[in-house]
Amino acid sequence: MLWKPDKHRLQQILQLLKESQSPDTTIQRTVQQKLEQLNKYSDFNNYLIFVLTKLKSEDDQCLNNIGDSSPLIRATISIVITTLASKGELQNWPDLLPKLCSLYAEDYNTHEGALGTLQKICEDSAEILGSYDLDHPFNIMIPKFL
């Protein structure tokens, strides 16, 4: 059966992602706490996948903001992306790893955001990164690291 998001919950998550762009550290802490709470719900990952793969503007916004000048915003975006990856959703977002690797040539903040996200993905998803299911992403990533 095809999963479809509840419009109200989807709007809440979209609002949370927008709030994550605030430079206010109090708001950032609140966003972080809400993300941790939402992660306990079984369908939360479905919403994140939907946002990051189906809503193109949100997908672009998330990856485009990985280089935000605020370390807290970069960290929040990195957590969202890593959460998806660690739940085995790399197969549904095949251009994620190549895109993150391509961001190395960007400015310092983007480089740091991309590298931090890749580090977290490698820590949390090492088994899937070495699998045949994803055509051995380590073969692409390791030369970038060297």
From TrEMBL:
Taxonomy, superkingdom: Eukaryota
A GO biological-process term: protein import into nucleus
UniProt keyword annotations, A-Z: Cytoplasm, Protein transport, Repeat, Transport
Keyword Iron among UniProt keywords: no
GO cellular component: cytoplasm
InterPro entries: ARM-like, ARM-type_fold, Importin_beta
Cell compartment(s), UniProt: Cytoplasm
Keyword Protein transport: yes
Gene3D superfamilies in the record: Leucine-rich Repeat Variant
Main location: cytoplasm
Protein name in UniProt: Importin N-terminal domain-containing protein
Classification lineage: Eukaryota, Metazoa, Chordata, Craniata, Vertebrata
